[in-house]
Amino acid sequence: MLADPIKVQIPKSYETLPVKDIKLYHHPENAPEATPVIVLTLNRPKQGNAFTIDMMHAFELVYPMLDLDERVKCVVITGAGRMFCAGADLDIGFPSGGKRERLVDHRDPGGRLNLCIYRCRKPTIVALNGPAVGLGMTLGLSAAIRIAHASSKYGFVFARRGITMESNSSFFLPRLIGHSNALYLLTTGDVYRGDSKHFGSLFQEVIEEQPSVLKRALELATNIAEKTSVLAGFMNRELMWRGKQTAEETHLLDSAVLYHMFASKDCEEGVQSFLKKREPRFSATLEKDGLPFYPWYHEIDTGSRPRADTSEKAKL
């Protein structure tokens, strides 16, 4: 049985949240309140934006807000400085000494961060604006889109550090690029240019100029925010990641979801905006307009799904 959902307070501005090791920006810049595109920057440039537990806690605080805030349509993650993420901070080290948890009780911090992105109904675009290894690579595997810099080096270096895959990457990576490419990257543990064939289609776009990586991510995010339905996009990703095992089972699920969406206000708006040659104004939400049988899969409680706190004292 799933635990009762935590109540999330939606802030007026994300730029004033008390978070450590990340920074949040509205896009376009200087907007006093949340905008459709929110930029989350890993903000430890002197340490190559290396991952910390504080960074994980910041993701776990912020992402449920982004998930539930209907003002937000798309999230962009990037890194401060010229490196995206150097992986786990080796100066801090791995959890090996002192009092240890039981193996069955431990929850990989990278996996907790990764699940924040995975469970969010708003799509995330990861702008890998510079080199990334280890957790710097795996944190973006559950995102919808990844954009890399052609000549920066990227790698899944776990075997060279004497550890195994993290952040649910054994689930995501082979599904994204195939077992052959994934095995090559993990077996060598080496780093490769962003335009290397070994990454397959992991990076949907590879950009030659480093400053243009974030610029392109913001262009895509703005286009997605302005022209797509949050509910339809989320259902599409859920159907792919949490679909059925056979063609027949998939047909039954697809049919039911599509039939429900045909009657949604976002479908009506999508058709009308197309016929009238104007920009769409999508407004459907999962809570008000979602499927009566969602989730159709068995939920596993690694941390219950949040819901918005609508009480008066919840206003930040």
TrEMBL record:
<dbReference type="InterPro" id="IPR029045">
    <property type="entry name" value="ClpP/crotonase-like_dom_sf"/>
</dbReference>
<protein>
    <recommendedName>
        <fullName>Enoyl-CoA hydratase</fullName>
    </recommendedName>
</protein>
<dbReference type="Pfam" id="PF00378">
    <property type="entry name" value="ECH_1"/>
</dbReference>
<dbReference type="InterPro" id="IPR001753">
    <property type="entry name" value="Enoyl-CoA_hydra/iso"/>
</dbReference>
<comment type="similarity">
    <text>Belongs to the enoyl-CoA hydratase/isomerase family.</text>
</comment>
<dbReference type="InterPro" id="IPR051053">
    <property type="entry name" value="ECH/Chromodomain_protein"/>
</dbReference>
